Amino acid sequence: KGFYVSGPAASSGLTRPMTLFDARGVPLVEVLRLTLFASPEFVGLPTGTYYLKVGDSLFDAIPCLDCPPTSGRPIVIAPDTPYFGLDVPAAVTRTLSGAVRDASSTGLSTITVELYTDAGRFAGSAVTDLFGNYSASLLPGLYYARTRNDRGYVDKVFADVACASCDVRRGTGVVVGSDNVAGIDFSLALGG
Fold first, then answer.
1. Residue range 80-93, pLDDT digits in tens
2. What SS3 string covers 6-72?
3. Nearest Cα to 191, choosing from 134, 149, 144, 132?
4. pLDDT digits (tens, 9 = 90+) for 13-55
5. pTM of this prediction?
């Protein structure tokens, strides 16, 4: 028994990991089969209840950065369930952006801005451009931002707290909701 994934998530399954979990929330291995021209398939499944995550989203494209997979909609395979298709929508992301500048308000290039969930899990990063601007695509949720550099500047967490190796959650959380978020800026001083 099994099912294939169709819809927008099927093509993203090659770039965003798809994981199937059993009723306890334990990830199943060796059940995903990717074929060259077909949709991703989950095969060899016994009767039972399953949960699917695509990247950091649940089966219905609901953001699930740190939630258990069992909080999503279950996929039930009964004894008489034939092989079927499961339409999985693509997750909607938002943009978090800002700038990194030095004390004279000059944009700093090649500074990494790291983003973490409210549980302290790494969620992504962006590198500043020639003018010190950065942009990251994220699922809705609460994030903490920090800088990382090897250019001699003191790294900070948002908003303006020096933090070389502290818990990023010492900073101010940024809520990414239904709109893009801009203005998550950093001002760095030399001395790092």
1. 988 888 888 777 88
2. ECHHHHHCCCCCEEEECCCCCECCCCEECCCCCCCEEECCCCEEEEEEECCEECCCCECCCCCHHHC
3. 149
4. 455 688 999 999 999 988 888 766 567 888 889 999 999 988 8
5. 0.69
